[in-house]
Amino acid sequence: VQLQASGGGLVQAGGSLRLTCAASGRTFSSRVMAWFRQAPGKEREFVAVVSGGGATTYYADSVKGRFTISRDNAKNTVSLQMNSLKPEDTAVYYCATTLSGMVTSNRYYDYWGQGTQVTVSS
Q1: Read out DSSP for 35-55?
Q2: What are the C-alpha distances in Å from 67 to residues 49, 63, 80, 85?
Q3: How confident is the model over 76-106, as pLDDT tens digits?
């Protein structure tokens, strides 16, 4: 499985960005997909996860109500719509995939994208 994340950029606080992760491989719909992020000097942290069929999602408390994760299995893509962005959302965002279920620990994810930078100015 190969993952390619895109859509990052510079945005003012209160603005929006949409990240997209394109996946290769025929098993996409059987895989749980997630977004993580890592700010400078901090550990990588869980952001959001979506089930294989797309019906079940789960979010970190810090982004709940502002971010929405979704997937299009016909296009092998997963997206993260980020609204009401805050400076503390600044980080490199990574998409990842696992067959281990709706887990939030990065140690269960076996494939990762290369990361896309999101910078939110105050």
Answers
A1: EEEE-TTS--EEEEEE-TTSS
A2: 11, 6, 7, 9
A3: 999 999 999 999 999 999 999 999 999 999 9
